[in-house]
Model the fold of this input.
Amino acid sequence: MNTNISNRLYQESLAKIPGGVNSPVRAFKSVGGNPLFIQRGEGAWIIDVDGNRFLDCVCSWGPLIFGHAHPRIAEALRHQLALGWTFGAPTELELRLAEIITHMVPSVEKVRFVSSGTEATMSAIRLARGFTKRNKIIKFEGCYHGHADCLLAKSGSGIATLGLPDSAGVPFGTTSDTIPLPYNDVDAVRKAFEDYGEDIAGVIVEPIAGNMGCVPPMPSFLQSLRDITSHFKALLIFDEVMTGFRVAKGGAQELYHVKPDITTFGKIIGGGLPVGAYGGGAEIMDMVAPVGPVYQAGTLSGNPLAITAGLETLMIINEDPGMYSRLDEMGRHVAQEWRLAAHEAGVRVSINQIGSMFTLFFADGPVLNYAQALTSDTDIFSRFFRLMQEQEIYYPPSQYECAFLSTAMGDSEIDHLIRGGKEALRSLGKQ
Ligand code: HOZ
Done:
């Protein structure tokens, strides 16, 4: 594969941008080789600057549930572009998107828009602390809630990918009220509440973890979090930045029938443009300024272009309620075929899949928490990643990120994905 132009752009970028990239996981550091520079996207495919074409399983790390350059979203953006793209004043668009979200996610009565998932979770934590007048926060190892200081403790995503012991530059004081516990471990949560219950403002959790690879909640994990937090009058925060509008119309909370106090959104809510949001019951949300004392603001919050993309995305979702079961069927089919191929090739794998989110771990047993995710053989993963690239599949360049399907993938794309994965697994079996 010719990647000369990507390589040249990467070398030039190294001189001007730290690591040549604007977000660490893109750098291919954990899988080797240089990042591909992308020129354009067409439906389920991306094309790099050297003209190589790949089936895209990154989907911009989740937002592109319909694939690239969906014509309706493109048209809506063109229309808004002609009207102006930022006013620093309210627009009807924000109201309409808020209405759709509160309809689709009933636990959310009011919602505040921000510009990224990081901002959403950072603000949700401040709100939980302001509402409860308590300081401590429970998070789970391997979950990643953006790069706000207080949440960078035992994080997944890029921190896990690069094998970093959390981040430099985070003062001890900012994480001293953060309690990281093992995912899916209800006993550990109970114990933490027995020890610090009166001081715990909230529990933040990815209801389906996506930042240590895809790790589903065990039956009753989320309900236990609901029961314990309610008992101790702490808030339950679902970080649905990745799962919101991806696993079901109402997110993971709809799938598992558990109602959080605060939900954070990102990715799909902006249709691929920078939008985040946090929302919850009116009593809690009315703690936010200008009504209440919890301050949070943003010049570009509710940006008309970004909100337009989000609005059009959620409208398309609402017109096609069957899309989630189709995506889940596709995901199950891929996972099943790859399991079989891995078995035949003598490669040990553990594949987690929920709807259109999935991860192939090169591990012996089930992966239900961060410690188990870390048992995956990352050398084999790196080889798998490169073999997938040879098969014209753009797979996430990290063991600790999810792969995604999009509705732009038809039968031939799913066949391409299954065949490519099988070929890669067969090659691994021979090495
Ligand atoms: N936060 C994204 C999902 N894990 C990864 C993308 C990135 O860090 O660039």
